[in-house]
Amino acid sequence: MGQRRPNTTADNVKNTAPVKVLTTVFTELQSDTFQKVDIVKRNGKKVYQMTNDKGSEVDVDPATMYPIHIKLSNHPDTFEFEKWNNATTQVAPPADQTVVYSG
Q: What is the pTM of this model?
């Protein structure tokens, strides 16, 4: 009978590869699995909270219809997306603080 080897760093990386994480998220969050939608408050704002029988939940901002919070039943972390389209604007430095380079 073979022995089971402990998880290695390589195993952990393989299990958290972006494609594996996304596949898990999208499998868990198929729209037909949600059975309940409530209006709840998240960070002081009313949001739609969809839950399924596995214990996963997605909170959606009703103004934009973007997901702002995702909790998966099979993952220990939550995913927060509070700042859709709120990137800070960067201002270029004055010309005397820049370097022109031509390769």
A: 0.56
